[in-house]
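User: Here's a chain of 715 residues. Predict its fold as tokens.
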Amino acid sequence: MTEHPPKPPPPLVPLRYRKRSIYLLLFYAPLLIIPWVLTCVLAGPPAPNGGNGQRYFPQSGLSANGVLSMLGWVAAVRTLNSIASVVTIPVTSALLAQAAVVYTQKRKPNQKLSLRQTFVLADRRWSDLTVLVEAYRRTGAGISSRFLWLGMTLIVLSAAQHPIQQLLVSWQSVPVMTCLDNPSESCGLTGPVVVGYDPEPADLATIRQNRVVQEVMSSLAVFNQLDRETHLWPDPSYLADEDTSRADPTYRQTLFYWMDERSSSISKQSDKPPNFFVTALQNGTSTGVLREHAIRLNSSAVCEKIPRAKFPSTCPGKRPFQTSFSHALLNVRVCAPGQYGVFPWTLSRNRQDFSEDLFLDVVDKRDLGLSIASFTLHCTASTTRGYFELANYMNSQAYGPLLDKWPDAETMAENFNDELSTYAGKGHGPPTEQDETEGYHDHYSNFWNTGPADPYDTNMLNMSGPLMTSAIALFGNQSFFEVAANSSKKTFPPAIQQICQQGQLPFSNLAFSIFTDFQSNCAAIATDHGRLSWDNSDPQELLASLLGDWFYSFNDTNSAEMALLASMYISNRAMLTQTATAAHAFSGREIRFGAGMLVPLPLKTLAGTVIISILIFLQLLGLSILTYYIYQLPTWTHALDAVEVARMAIGLKDSVMPPLARGGEVDLAKLNKIDGLVGLDEDRANMALGGPGVITRRHATKLESKRHGNDGFRR
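Assistant: Prediction complete.
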């Protein structure tokens, strides 16, 4: 039997795979990925109507534990980002130093790398930007290598990622809705602040007419179009216009602003309806982190001259409003078709449009020298009632447009915080499209009888439309026109004196009056034991003159439209505010403001998210490829550092690397000609600088240098 000779021992080459790169990658990758993922989660979906990318939270609010958890995640993101920004360059440079060992080992027979290039990699010049300048100088010829530029690219990418992230992702203190802000479910002793009350449709349907008419009547006598109207809101579509949005916000809250637009011949606005609406709430009311709705009304009027024959011979409707004044010098007829004392809208919260008509016929027989002193006028008013979303954090504090449809029950429960009064008939819960509390308001109908004294037996009539209400306030019971219409020569004191003393003449206090200066006329009338101070003056003629001058202002259709615009605004305002005031104790819906809790959260854009995600992906891809490259070959050292360079330089001749004792400089040109690759020597047992042997995977060994008493590097 033939015996085989013993297998020779493997070559004593200390080449092995280093685990440090895996550990570094496993340590650094989570620092890169986790904070960015958490940042995207914390930023969350943007608000549906938000213009600045702010975070949107469910309208149910977060619990106390939820807020604390969010604050904890914010702290974690900031901590991990801080750690990552500190270790990015050291970790990347350490991986490059280990990969440089693989790059400087002889892997192919025709591979080339000068000793100078090896020394540059050992100096880790990939993190030194001055190498860019040096490489393009004559003295720097031969220092560049593919690994150097790829390493520098990875360093720049890694160093730039964090600053770019800070630039594209800003952190702001965002008000977060908590359970303390939720009106339906509070987790503490405090809750949202009530900032107003919104009348329910069923409340509006039961308010009595005389309550509103009395306020309209008294308001028209003292109304000034330069007064700041706190319940007047410009429509969002109007504010969207860049030119009109530049107007002073305070000026926009005066009726003069809207009248001036219509009266201006160069603005070309006279054919457009006034673009504002009225609510029971103060202009600019905000609900903070809550989302709530409010009812709104907007009215406009269009007037035209018509032939007298078109004035209705019989005022149409179930209960129209009609009245007249007859005098030898002046005849006036007023007709408002329809049915006064009946609420014109349903209990639905959807958008509702309503139109009304008013006919006015004036025959002025005074000798004024005016061919158009007599006229017949037909005015049509259009009123829209509906709901809109109040300003809040979600819509960037910009209140919403008129809603055509009330949101469905599921949407209301999930996305809004409107809550019915707990004292209303239906009780707690979000409002539905149809106000279901009608029976409750009928039960409390006597509540509305606390209005002004009414000797005309109209105290049980409900609110009418704004034009009908305006007509009743201008020409109905207790108005100046009613005093004039029921007067005679036997009236004592004379009707004109009563009108001036009561001070109930509508539009007499307009700042830039489209009506005659009635204050001066009334100032000329004084009382002297029941006799007029005007000698030989007929009170009835004076009365006809006063009324004729007042009605003459309606001869201009634009002036008539502006007068009705003011009266309908006051009518809508009175109806909403009177209802909210009377109903807030039991059925009025509270409008609340929730401040939320300030939490620092990231605000990002889609473009910023894409850019940062790409940068992180490229950085991770580069580090992963670098780690994979390191594990392609076993290496003789864990990193190309100063110690290993010293070992490599021991065998160099003095002419190439002169000792310190001799002085002089290193001949860099000679370094460019010396092979800088580390390969196996001729015996394939040790490594040598410039060794011809190619290093492969099969040369990996588990033998330690101490075991053999040799470091494996041939000198």
